[in-house]
Amino acid sequence: MIDQGLIGKVYHVRAVYLQDWIMDPNFPLAWRLRKEIAGSGSHGDLNAHLIDTARFLVGEFDSVCATFETFIKERPVELEGGSLFAGKTSKEKAPATVDDAVISLARFKNGAIGTFEATRFAKGHNNANRIEVNGSKGSIIFDFERMNELEYFNDDDPADVRGFRTIPATLPSHPYMSAYWPPGHIIGYEHTFVNAAADFADAFAEGKMIKPDFEDGLRNQIVLDAMSKSGEKKTWVEVSDI
Question: Is residue 59 part of a domain?
């Protein structure tokens, strides 16, 4: 829809990824909270998804400015690691070495500006991954927790019915849906992996390169690194300098 010009020239991107699963100060120092293993906290774990989506929808980042915070500085030492989050703990505590939250500003090469917020300290939010793009003719909003829907505002609608409409993306005309159920039958998180595997297999069969690729992963990491350096220097950082 953006490529078709349905929202016009892009002005704003605002993206948030909100979770709350480590707000308990007694939550142990799991591997995700140790910089030597995880690399970073909410930044690399959550903000990476926002950056990748924004690059896909809007284009390349030009410069960024970010601030980081670790709200709980020490946590109980984990004695036995859990499969995903945490396991048994001891009474001993050790420093938490990753960020609990990051908020960043961004300028894109096409002139758009953006805000990005990733946190594990947003009480009441389990996995709120949401991105909104505003343009000269309209806006679109995607919420990961309502992944079968897209919100769309069209400024060309008659004034008496103008407003955000909810588009249920479950018709065979929508991407991937022809492979699944009748219209109105939603698909879930697991189907996104099936779709990715299908794209991968089709690329082999057709002898073509697939997107996203390793370059997209690298460019994502470069933006993450630029934001990290911005947080350290407390200043704007040009992405091209990384």
Answer: yes
Distance from the Cα of residue 180 to its chain's centroid: 26
- Torsion angle of the four alpha carbons 184, 189, 194, 198, in this order, in degrees rounded to the nearest 10: 80
In order along the chain (242 residues), what is the average pLDDT of each group of 10 residues? 97 98 93 94 98 97 98 90 66 95 98 98 97 98 96 96 96 93 94 95 93 94 98 98 94
Domain CATH for 117? 3.30.360.10
DSSP H helices, 58-129, are none
N residues, the chain: 242
Q: What are phi and psi of 12, to 5 degrees?
A: -125, 145
What's the number of domains the chain is made of? 1
Query: Which pTM was predicted?
Result: 0.93
107 part of a folded domain? yes
CA distance readout (Å), 240 to 25, 58, 60, 148, 223 = 39, 17, 10, 36, 9
